[in-house]
Amino acid sequence: MQQSKDELYEHIKDLKTKKEFEKEIQEHYQKYEELFDKDTIALLIVDELGKNKQVISKIADLKPDSDYVVAGTVTNIYDLRTFTRKNGTSGRVVNLDINDETGTCRLVLWDKDVDQVKNKEIKNGTKIKIINGYTKNGYSGLEINLGRWGILEIESNETSDIQEAGSDEINGILIEKNPTKAFFKDSGEFGFVTKIKIKSNDKEKHITIWDDKVKEIQKYHIGDHIKLINITLKQNNGQTELHANGRCMIE
Predict the structure, then answer these.
(1) Mean pLDDT of 71-89
(2) Three-state SS sequence of the chain
(3) What's the fold here for domain 161-250?
(4) pTM over 0.90, yes/no
């Protein structure tokens, strides 16, 4: 379970006063309102300062029923499975094997996180980092899962085959908004990313939304008709990806 902001402050009390810490949390909360709660923002600040006590753990050292930060490389991806919960809702799950220099562990991704495998953001050889993952004994041994407070970071070393392919405009009905994820940019600043799905001309289009546009898209609701102008098209491994960054306008 993620620590509260008061518990997290104990890690950085030698760097900031409690008043400074609370002020910084409030500034980020106001700037990115409706994206993250204050405890999550506090975790990002502590991690940015290098004071996250949950240092990266080696896979060989993982024990069940604990929270960890783990980094590794994806070595195997199993078939996606769908299932029905007791309340009648449907769910999706996919299992992956990740390894580091000490061993291999099963990583389980659920529901929205499965899209990162379907969209080939995660594939064999992808380097990933799991922050606040929780472990338990599964059918195939020890596994690590992402809960409400878990963050999955993807490191791609394949940017060389991604090329700008121009820009476009998309009109359609907003039919899906995914949860927002946070990450640290090379500059040390917060970055935010989410994904939406738009139905346009009877076709569904997946669009990745970045940074300030993430906050902007929050005011739109499922069923709204929206227009995205200056969508960036990128070619990645022969597939066209749609991205909305700072140059995109949403109407």
Answers:
(1) 91
(2) CCCCHHHHHCCCCCCCCHHHHHHHHHHHHHHCCCCCCHHHHHHHHHHHCCCCCCCEECHHHCCCCCEEEEEEEEEEECCCEEEECCCCCEEEEEEEEEEECCEEEEEEEEHHHHHHHHCCCCCCCCEEEEEEEEEEEECCEEEEEEEEEEEEEEECCCHHHEEEEEEEEEEEEEEEECCCEEEECCCCCEEEEEEEEEEECCEEEEEEEECHHHHHHCCCCCCCEEEEEEEEEEEECCEEEEEECCCCEEC
(3) OB fold (Dihydrolipoamide Acetyltransferase, E2P) (2.40.50)
(4) no
